[in-house]
Amino acid sequence: MQRLNAITFKQLRALDAVCQSGAISTAAEMLSLTPPAVHSQLRALEEVFGCALVNRGQGGFAPTEQGAALLTAFRTARAALERAVHQIETLGKGLSGTVVLGVVSTAKYFAPHLVAMLRSEFPDIDVVLRIGNRARIIQMIETGDLDLVIMGRPPRLPAVVARSIGDHPHLLVAPPGHPLTRIAQVTPDDILSQPFVMREPGSGTRILTMRFLDEIGEGREFAYTEMESNETIKQAVAAGLGVAILSGHTVHEELKSGRLVSIPAERLPIVRHWFVLHAAGQELSQPAIRIMDWIVSNPDRFLPGGARSAARF
């Protein structure tokens, strides 16, 4: 209890920001503090526990085992406090309040437009957008940081309640004039002979790509390069560094402009679905219910190509 009384919210926010950004200077910017102030908060917190809470490696600062345990507790407590604040605001204003909407990186190409539409439809509801790769979004579901989530395949854990929105086609894309565009019937061997550009571990698009290539190649090895964003992958493919499997909604504009082309082949496109979901057992606020119902009822208004877009790619 004595240690608990010595901990401050500012110290925990400093630890969270440093571990999230990997750098004290970036964490200071996030918190509108000076780097020495962030360092001081971190040192004070480590003195309370008598152990290191972060380690510095090649990729920047990362939590130690003790730091990770403290971060999990802090994020859970912060999410609970935010829910309490939202609930109090909603009680005070009727159906008004805040809804935190998390989306996977692939959805960021239509998510801002969706949020703009939601704010227009529901001016009394403040819709806050959070974007991350699949692993990060799942982590935020676990810690209760999100009211609603838009993503592809729902996770097995944590348990969620999911409602389908519409098609989520994935295409094999290449630059115009690529050798695959001159083959009448593209075979698995043709596909596996190409260098691939794919997302980082933890990305849903990477999981889908690896699974597809493993299936058509029956475990055969293939060459690939990792990149950490869909934008970088699109630029790499356009520059001729390889081919990629990407969401049709990610490359919608590039296909329209002719900067990239879709390669037709057996089992392509890979058609998955978009879902809007929330953690099972989570009691949704009235604003969150209104937002979720609107998203399910109006996919044609925000999904590129509409709810049945697979046939258009």
TrEMBL record:
Keywords: DNA-binding, Transcription, Transcription regulation
SUPFAM superfamilies (alphabetical): Periplasmic binding protein-like II, Winged helix' DNA-binding domain
PROSITE patterns: HTH_LYSR (PS50931)
Organism superkingdom: Bacteria
Gene3D superfamilies named among the record's database cross-references: Periplasmic binding protein-like II (3.40.190.10), Winged helix-like DNA-binding domain superfamily/Winged helix DNA-binding domain (1.10.10.10)
A single GO molecular function term of this UniProt record: transcription cis-regulatory region binding
Any Pfam family hit: HTH_1
Domain HTH lysR-type: 7-64
UniProt KW Transcription keyword: yes
InterPro entries assigned to the protein according to its UniProt record, in alphabetical order: LysR_HTH_N, LysR_subst-bd, WH-like_DNA-bd_sf, WH_DNA-bd_sf
PANTHER family associated with the record: HTH-TYPE TRANSCRIPTIONAL ACTIVATOR CMPR, HTH-TYPE TRANSCRIPTIONAL REGULATOR
Family recorded in the similarity comment: Belongs to the LysR transcriptional regulatory family.
Protein name: HTH-type transcriptional regulator CbbR
